[in-house]
């Protein structure tokens, strides 16, 4: 499948039309951004690593019965995906307190959250992705109540699969962000990506940060650590 016209250029991925109306190509670039695009750097091999990592994780989720948009790995940086009408909210599940939760509520980083916490954020860089709740989402027509309920159910289903996967590989899935869209049949499908750019992973023993916080906090060895995460899961990059 060939890339045609560009549909959308995000901070780390570019989306292209294809000759098939129902399919798009996602190109994972080396661009790495943080703080709503205020800090941007090119990290060698990051696009390739995230493309392959995303394909690996989405395949695990498909096997577990969770519908994803991923169709095929096309090349180092490109994946073929189903075209979705994306819902403009981010679904976050937190197993351990970190990041914006610590800043907002003054809780201690590393505190276990049992049961896990679910949060919605509006995708809007200019507004710094504000937190929203179910009422905002329905009122403004971003999704229906049924879709909200499905997004929560599926985001927790992903937690069950991935928490175990990372645990077996010696890592703690601290939190992560998912995005969903509607396919041509009206079904809710997991879109966007699951990579160390959109989750927090800590080494279980040492609590070493193995995700995009290495970039946000200037800890170095960003791509090398993503490759280590993949290697622990059995994906050689
Ligand atoms: P926080 O709200 O603590 O900043 O983020 C919670 C989790 O969602 C983290 O794993 C973080 O990486 C992910 N996340 C939240 N917003 C974004 C975003 O706009 N882009 C990406 N890539 N990840 C995000």
TrEMBL record:
Pathway this chain belongs to: Purine metabolism; IMP biosynthesis via de novo pathway; 5-amino-1-(5-phospho-D-ribosyl)imidazole-4-carboxamide from 5-amino-1-(5-phospho-D-ribosyl)imidazole-4-carboxylate: step 1/2
Residue span, SAICAR synthetase/ADE2 N-terminal domain: 7-232
One Gene Ontology term of the molecular function aspect: phosphoribosylaminoimidazolesuccinocarboxamide synthase activity
Domain of life: Bacteria
GO cellular component: cytosol
Gene that encodes it: purC
Entry protein name: Phosphoribosylaminoimidazole-succinocarboxamide synthase
Keywords of this entry: ATP-binding, Ligase, Nucleotide-binding, Purine biosynthesis
Origin organism lineage: Bacteria, Pseudomonadati, Pseudomonadota, Gammaproteobacteria, Alteromonadales
Signal peptide: none
Species whose genome carries this gene: Salinimonas marina
HAMAP family named among the record's database cross-references: SAICAR_synth
Family: Belongs to the SAICAR synthetase family.
EC number(s) stated in the UniProt entry for this protein: 6.3.2.6
One BP annotation, GO: cobalamin biosynthetic process
Enzyme class: ligase
